[in-house]
């Protein structure tokens, strides 16, 4: 568990971060969201002491991080940045193995782990193991960056706009891949982003910052349906609820089949995103759809299901 207590950072006379109190729960992904210059990156970098706080405390599992050597602290905390920072003279496998090698882990075990991680991030090990960073596309390099951060198996992962430099299609794919990885590995992740969709899509929780301070901390649902201020409402925008629907399959909203009522005639696949299901309801002028999986009805969905404050996240 990472706790920030009255954390602050001053640069000269101005505060980049001010009186920040926040707990990042274990096994969850928290998105640090906010407009440019609000202090997201400064906050992230104070967690692994790439930036030293001017005041307050960061506690990792109850321990004040100032009591730890920065190098020792960083060994237990993965760090992924937008510019990836792969070593150009090392191949993909060597890049991924950097930290395990530094820690003196067994070579053969590391090689197996590298292949496993490349698989996990969707890169075929045989194709990519020996490539140099210069031979990779932006999306492939970002995947290697994620694999490298996971290689040391750190319980905590800090990510600064990790998918920022990608085109929308590659970003969507990598976000999906990362969400699947996170469901399995359950790391404690803090991810800086200024992309609202990304925060709502990937965040178990969102910490919305404004001018160095915390504006609201809650689930995506809390921010959308229970904003604490006009700033939150305006930052998320009128279509925040639609954005949230866009990031989730309709299956998460559907009601169980009751056996007694006839099935609605219009059907959609369970993997369709909930925003598109809403569009089908509008287009068809109907108030309920059948949801199918592989041609079999598995539930139904109507306006009210989509309008509720959103499903529980698995
Ligand atoms: N080394 C520094 N020296 C002086 N001011 C700094 C320094 N680093 C950051 N700042 C200032 O601190 C504030 C917060 O910066 P930070 O990079 O944390 O914001 P951010 O929310 O991550 O922004 P962005 O989304 O644009 O990356 C900004 O006003 C920035 O100009």
UniProtKB/TrEMBL annotation:
GO terms for biological process: quaternary ammonium group transport. This is Amino acid ABC transporter ATP-binding protein. Residues 2-236 form the ABC transporter domain. It comes from the Bacteria. GO terms for molecular function: ATP binding; ATP hydrolysis activity. InterPro entries: AAA+_ATPase (IPR003593), ABC_transporter-like_ATP-bd (IPR003439), ABC_transporter-like_CS (IPR017871), P-loop_NTPase (IPR027417). Belongs to the ABC transporter superfamily. Keywords: ATP-binding, Nucleotide-binding, Transport.
């Amino acid at each position: 568990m990472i706790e920030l207590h009255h954390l602050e950072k001053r640069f000269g006379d101005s505060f980049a971060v001010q009186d920040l109190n926040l707990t990042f729960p274990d096994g969850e992904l928290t998105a640090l969201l906010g407009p440019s210059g609000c202090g997201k990156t400064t906050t992230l970098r104070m967690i692994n002491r790439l930036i030293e706080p001017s005041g307050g405390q960061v506690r990792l599992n109850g321990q004040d991080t100032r009591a730890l050597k920065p190098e020792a602290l960083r060994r237990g905390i993965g760090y992924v940045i937008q510019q990836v920072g792969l070593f150009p003279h090392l191949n993909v496998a060597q890049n991924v193995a950097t930290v395990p090698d530094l820690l003196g882990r067994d070579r053969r075990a590391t090689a197996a782990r590298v292949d496993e991680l490349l698989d996990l991030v969707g890169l075929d090990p045989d194709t990519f193991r020996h490539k140099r960073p210069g031979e990779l596309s932006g999306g492939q390099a970002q995947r290697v960056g994620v694999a490298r951060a996971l290689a040391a198996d750190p319980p905590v992962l800090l990510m600064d706009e990790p998918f920022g430099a990608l085109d929308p299609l590659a970003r969507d794919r990598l976000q999906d891949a990362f969400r699947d990885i996170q469901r399995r590995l359950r790391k404690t992740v803090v991810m800086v982003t200024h992309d609202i969709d990304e925060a709502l899509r990937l965040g178990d929780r969102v910490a919305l910052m404004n001018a160095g301070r915390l504006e609201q901390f809650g689930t995506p649902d809390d921010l959308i349906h229970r904003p604490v201020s006009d700033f939150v409402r305006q930052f998320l925008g009128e279509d925040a609820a639609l954005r949230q629907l866009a990031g989730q399959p309709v299956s998460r909203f559907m009601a169980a089949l009751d056996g007694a009522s006839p099935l609605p005639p219009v059907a959609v696949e369970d993997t369709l995103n909930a925003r598109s299901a809403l569009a089908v309801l509008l287009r068809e002028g109907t108030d309920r759809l059948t949801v199918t999986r592989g041609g079999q009805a598995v539930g139904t969905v109507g306006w009210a299901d989509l309008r509720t404050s959103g499903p529980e996240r698995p």
